[in-house]
Write a structure and sequence with these properties.
Layout lengths: L8 H11 L7 H11 L3 H32 L8 H47 L2 H5 L3 H42 L1 H8 L2 H38 L1 H6 L3 H27 L1 H25 L5 H42 L21 E11 L2 E11 L4 E5 L6 H8 L7 E6 L2 E2 L5 H7 E4 L8 E2 H5 L8 H10 L3 H6 L7 E2 L8 H15 L3 E5 L7 H15 L3 E5 L3 H4 L4 E6 L2 E6 L1 H7 L2 H7 L9
Parallel strand pairs: 3-10, 3-11, 6-9, 9-10
Antiparallel strand pairs: 1-2, 1-4, 4-5, 7-8, 11-12
Helix pairs in contact: 1-8, 2-12, 3-4, 3-6, 3-12, 4-6, 6-7, 6-12, 7-11, 8-10, 8-11, 11-12, 16-18, 18-19, 21-22
């Protein structure tokens, strides 16, 4: 395998992620997040209240220690030591409880917001048009559903503690100045140094962290690709070559992660060093002031405790700013998905599709998948009720486009698709799904039982109806032979049963739905010749009494059709009964003569 070059798809995708990893925190994204947070404002206020109580307890502890020192050293006006101990115990309990409840409340708030976002994205993706799904990379969509949502979840879980850190920082500065303003000024002289170190560290850290994220994406992509293609890898005996390539990518990832870990930890000793210097300043400055009678021991002790805590929220807030940048990117990408327009929608108070006489009429239809590149041009086709029409033709002729338009997976650019005298754009979308059922070349079975898969389109159908439909399409015998019969669990996409068995289950699913219009999109293309006769008999049962459109892959599929429509370049080349077309000597006859048995769908 060649070494990865600058044009390698993994690197290109990584560069795209890098360009948008760190973006400015814009008001637009904040405004969009407002409606997402608003339903949970009570929980948000409760989280803020508990974190502020926690901050108050944190600020009170050094003051109580100061009071205890003052009491022990006999300072004038000091409290009784017993009262200080009681107050200290109460503050410690308050500190523990508020710390626990602030974390729990922040996590609950984050989970509820993320739940709403994830549900909204899933719901929206169920309604967007097929054209969007056609041009979208599934991996990118999954990245937004998982990675971006998780990044936003992490931000929400840490945002409430970040508010507490900000309040703690302000509180510490205020208390320091209230106790001894000269020591406070000496201590804060180190803040510009910290900000300078941060400014030097951040650009390099961005490069290192991005490289670590890129390398992780490359390794994950290599894992997914090789696992999905393991059969091809084994057949080509490329195990050693692929292992060497993966080893190189994994090594790069290891090195990048080690560098990122080193870069992430470099700020820790920096903060510790500045904290030590600040403590030294407090000790020396406090001693000088104490010797001059300008302060007392209790103030110095309190200063030491406050200085130890001062740089911790500074470090946390710096990390939180980076997390906020990532969350802004994640929110922007999430809202991009939610803003995808729903191109196919139904009119208010639209009537259902009746299809009592299920005729199909495509009237001067122009349609394509990309602007300026129509597949069908001024195309017209009429199919009578209960007629079986087969569509044949080479790749790109428009067969599957016609099927998709009948199901209203897409809308025509011009013209109309009419079923039973009703334009599909003027009826309820759910009613189309009830009256028009499509069986695909590669049946998609979901993880679940066989019975659940058969009743997928009709969830309230009875078990008896499911068995009746399975018997009709000759699926009952093999289902009963399985260990758990209709309760047998199917693996992902039904991989634990054969292709022919999966197709028979899809036929049973279509039959139990009892549609008025049936579309078979290359439904026998993946079936071997040993089970083809069984499939053909099941098809006859399935099509009986229905208007049927067959997208033909094998000529054996179309021999029982009432009419064959031969397509080329989005236009009807010839049509008629199988016998008429054979006698005519056109394209269909030529295909038949050469035993053409593989027409690809678009």
């Amino acid at each position: 395998m060649n070494a990865i070059t600058a044009t390698d798809p993994d690197r290109i995708a990584a560069r795209e992620e890098r360009d948008e990893m760190f973006v400015p925190i814009t008001s637009g994204v904040v405004e969009r997040l407002g409606p997402v947070i608003r339903p949970h404002r009570r929980l948000a206020l409760a989280a803020l209240a508990t974190i502020l109580l926690f901050v108050g307890a944190q600020l009170a502890i050094p003051l109580l220690i100061k009071a205890a020192v003052d009491s022990l050293t006999g300072q004038a006006g000091s409290w009784a030591l017993s009262s200080i101990v009681t107050a200290f115990a109460a503050v410690i309990v308050l500190n523990s409880l508020t710390n626990y409840w602030s974390d729990v409340t922040a996590a609950r708030l984050a989970q509820r917001i993320i739940f709403d976002l994830r549900r909204a994205m899933f719901e929206h993706l169920q309604r967007v048009s097929q054209s969007f799904m056609d041009r979208s990379h599934v991996g990118r969509i999954m990245s937004r559903l998982q990675g971006d949502v998780n990044a936003l979840q992490e931000f929400f879980e840490t945002s409430v503690p970040a508010v507490g850190d900000m309040a703690l920082l302000v509180g510490i500065v205020g208390v320091l100045f209230a106790l001894e303003w000269r020591l406070a000024l000496l201590t804060l002289l180190l803040v510009p140094v910290l900000l300078g170190v941060r400014a030097l560290w951040l650009p390099r850290a961005r490069v290192v962290f991005t490289a670590a994220r890129d390398s992780s994406s490359i390794v994950n992509g290599a894992l997914a690709e090789n696992i999905n293609g393991v059969r091809v890898v084994q057949a080509a005996r490329r195990e050693a070559i692929n292992l060497a390539d993966f080893n190189r990518k994994a090594t790069d990832n290891r090195d990048a992660q080690v560098t990122a870990a080193w870069m992430a930890q470099i700020m820790v000793p920096t903060i510790d060093t500045l904290t030590g210097i600040a403590l030294a300043i407090v000790a020396l400055g406090g001693a000088w002031l104490a010797l001059g009678g300008g302060t007392d021991i209790g103030v110095m002790v309190a200063f030491i405790f406050y200085v130890q805590r001062f740089f911790e929220p500074v470090r946390t807030l710096a990390q939180q700013y980076t997390a906020a940048q990532r969350a802004t990117t994640a929110a922007h990408r999430i809202f991009e998905v939610l803003d995808v327009p729903v191109e196919i929608s139904e009119q208010p108070f639209a009537p259902p599709l009746e299809a009592k006489e299920p005729s199909i009429s495509l009237r001067q239809v122009t349609f394509g998948y990309r602007a300026g590149q129509p597949i069908l041009r001024d195309f017209s086709l009429d199919i009578a009720p209960h007629e079986v029409v087969a569509l044949v033709g080479p790749t790109g002729s428009g067969k599957s486009s016609i099927a998709a338009l009948i199901c209203r997976l897409y809308d025509v650019w011009q013209g109309a698709v009419v079923i039973g005298g009703q334009d599909v754009r003027n009826v309820r979308q759910q009613s189309i799904a009830r009256k028009v059922v499509m069986v695909l070349q590669e049946p998609f079975l979901f993880t679940g039982t066989i019975e659940e898969n058969i009743r997928f389109t009709t969830p309230d159908v009875s078990h008896e109806d499911i068995v009746r439909a399975a018997r009709a399409v000759q699926a009952h015998d093999f289902i009963e032979a399985l260990p758990n019969g209709y309760a047998t669990m199917l693996d992902q996409r039904g991989q634990n049963i054969s292709v022919g068995q999966r197709q028979l289950i899809s036929f049973a699913r279509a039959l139990v739905a009892d549609p008025a219009v049936l579309i078979l999109d290359e439904a026998t293309a993946s079936i071997d010749s040993f089970v083809e006769a069984q499939i053909q008999q099941a098809l006859r049962v399935l099509m009986r009494g229905r208007t049927s459109v067959l997208i033909a892959h094998r000529l054996a599929t179309v021999k029982d059709a009432d009419r064959i429509v031969v397509l080329r370049d989005g236009a009807i080349l010839e049509q008629g009964s199988p016998q008429e077309l054979l006698e005519r000597g056109g394209l269909y006859a030529d295909l038949h003569r050469h035993n053409y048995a593989s027409f690809d769908e678009i």
